[in-house]
């Protein structure tokens, strides 16, 4: 389990670095896709209730250090998304296209809801998504479009990133 | 290797996420009350190091590809510049005379030659990983003399404009909160004419216009499209007369005693690659005096306007 958590966290942090340095060039209307979120959804769906949330929490903390967000913001959001995705663990067979798209979009909306919850608790020190603004929906669509490709790329890494229990 | 116990029961497994969520909330509670900022600074120093590595790889790849077309462009530029150089050489003599004359006149008027600011050039290595916050990360940090709340400017198309301010400083990297961030505010005034003052803030996206608030309603007839807005220098953070934006639209709401003015930033934030951090000379002397600071005395790239 520890190996899976460490490798998953390293992969998520690498995605965060890539998002912050390279993804400016593929932004659509100034919106970048959340690659680390897509990877986290895959990891949590495959691993279940322990590894996904732990990796999400650690990667989220790393992201907080790189962002102007308050410490704990991304840690909370990523843990929440991972925990909710882990509830679905083993419930469906992940096909090549439809379910990854749905998970990518739903994960982004869950992320926005988690951010909204933090906004309710901590008020103006938190930046929240507006559900009527284009940013959230462009990001959701972008994540949905990218998810099938990311899931496909991650599949061969199953034995490194997913525990034996997760592989069934 | 520490003895890490893995929760083996279903109950134990279910407890992991709530525990981590609670830990996140504790972190948030502490950090939103701005307690010291030490964990953030430490984390930025560590992760900023790796982030710079990622940025360097990206820059290397894009630069390698761009260098082929760049070579052709440079050849054309070389020819053009050679012709320009010839013209400028002729102009140089006249400028030297004017400079001398200007110096003499300034001395006669008793103007101070001392400019109280220095600039530190830095390259933007990263932006915020996601879309909610507007972080800009630069490749200079504490060891280069950067300190929290130092103002940041950039030059673009011959125009000098305000970028934002340093919000977090790591050892080799720093985080900047840009002017377009929705939590960013700067006291500003119109550059010419009325000198009307207001408070300029961002709307969260680099493409969205800045908004100047609390401008007195009676001034609305004096404000023209394209008028330049600059910093007032009232705050201790931003020096005066740095360009912020130009008037795009005036919004007059009947129920308000003030008007809102939309401004086009003088800088295109999506195109900025290099910035200058403005360092007051008082900070410079403090850094020079600090023990074991090898880099602090390094000469900076140039000087800012006062």
Write a structural description:
The complex is a heterodimer of chains A (168) and B (306). Chain A has 168 residues and is mainly alpha-helical. Chain A has helices spanning 2-21, 35-47, 51-66, 73-87, 98-122, 134-154, 158-161, 164-167. Chain A has one domain (2-160): Orthogonal Bundle (Arp2/3 complex 21 kDa subunit ARPC3). With 306 residues, chain B is of the alpha+beta class. Chain B has helices spanning 10-32, 38-109, 281-289, and strands at 117-127, 136-138, 151-156, 159-169, 174-178, 185-190, 197-201, 210-216, 228-231, 243-251, 258-265, 274-280. Mean pLDDT of chain B is 80; it is low at 288-306. Chains A and B meet through helix 1, helix 3, helix 4 and helix 5 of A and helix 1, helix 2 and strand 1 of B.
- Estimate the mean pLDDT confidence of chain B: 80
Please mark out the parts of chain B with pLDDT under 50 across 5 or more consecutive residues, or reply none. Answer: 288-306
| Quaternary | heterodimer
Which descriptor suits the 3D outline of chain A? Answer: globular
Topology summary:
The complex is a heterodimer of chains A (168) and B (306).
Chain A: H1 2-21, H2 35-47, H3 51-66, H4 73-87, H5 98-122, H6 134-154, H7 158-161, H8 164-167
Chain B: H1 10-32, H2 38-109, E1 117-127, E2 136-138, E3 151-156, E4 159-169, E5 174-178, E6 185-190, E7 197-201, E8 210-216, E9 228-231, E10 243-251, E11 258-265, E12 274-280, H3 281-289
Antiparallel strand pairs in B: 1-2, 1-12, 2-5, 3-4, 3-12, 4-5, 6-7, 6-9, 7-8, 8-11, 9-10, 10-11
């Amino acid at each position: 389990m520890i190996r899976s958590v460490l490798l998953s966290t390293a992969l998520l942090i690498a995605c965060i670095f890539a998002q912050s340095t390279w993804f400016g060039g593929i932004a659509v209307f100034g919106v970048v896709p959340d690659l680390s979120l897509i990877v986290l959804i895959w990891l949590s769906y495959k691993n279940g209730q322990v590894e996904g949330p732990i990796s999400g929490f650690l990667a989220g903390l790393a992201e907080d250090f790189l962002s102007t967000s308050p410490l704990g913001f991304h840690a909370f959001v990523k843990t929440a998304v991972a925990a909710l995705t882990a509830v679905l663990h083993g419930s469906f067979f992940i096909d090549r296209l439809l379910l990854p798209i749905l998970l990518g979009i739903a994960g982004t909306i869950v992320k926005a809801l988690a951010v909204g919850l933090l906004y309710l608790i901590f008020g103006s020190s938190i930046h929240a998504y507006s559900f009527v603004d284009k940013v959230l929906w462009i990001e959701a669509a972008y994540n949905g479009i990218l998810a099938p490709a990311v899931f496909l790329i991650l599949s061969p890494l199953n034995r490194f990133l997913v525990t034996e229990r997760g592989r069934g | 290797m520490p003895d890490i116990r893995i929760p083996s029961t279903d109950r134990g497994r279910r407890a992991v996420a709530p525990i981590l969520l609670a830990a996140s909330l504790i972190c948030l509670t502490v950090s939103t009350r701005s307690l010291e900022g030490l964990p953030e600074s430490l984390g930025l120093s560590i992760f900023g190091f790796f982030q710079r590595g990622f940025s360097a790889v990206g820059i290397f790849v894009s630069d390698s590809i761009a260098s082929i077309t760049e070579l052709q462009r440079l050849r054309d530029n070389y020819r053009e510049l050679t012709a320009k150089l010839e013209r400028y050489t002729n102009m140089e003599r006249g400028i030297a005379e004017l400079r001398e004359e200007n110096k003499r006149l300034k001395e006669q008027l008793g103007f101070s030659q001392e400019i109280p600011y220095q600039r530190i050039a830095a390259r933007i290595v990263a932006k915020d990983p996601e879309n909610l916050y507007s972080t800009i990360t630069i490749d200079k940090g504490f060891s280069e003399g950067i300190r929290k709340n130092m103002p940041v400017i950039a030059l673009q198309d011959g125009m000098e404009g305000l970028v934002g301010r340093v919000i977090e400083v790591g050892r080799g990297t720093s985080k900047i909160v840009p002017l377009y961030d929705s939590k960013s505010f700067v006291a500003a005034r119109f550059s010419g004419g009325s000198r009307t003052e207001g408070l300029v803030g961002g709307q969260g996206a680099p493409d969205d216009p800045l908004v100047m608030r609390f401008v007195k309603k009676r001034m609305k007839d004096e404000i023209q499209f394209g008028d330049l807005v600059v910093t007032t220098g009232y705050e201790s953070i931003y020096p005066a007369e740095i360009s912020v934006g130009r008037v795009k639209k005036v919004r007059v709401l009947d129920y308000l005693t003030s008007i809102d003015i939309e401004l086009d930033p003088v800088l295109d934030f999506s195109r900025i690659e290099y910035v200058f951090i403005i360092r007051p000379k008082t900070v410079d002397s403090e850094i020079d005096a600090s023990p074991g600071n090898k880099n602090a005395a390094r000469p900076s790239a140039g000087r800012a306007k006062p």
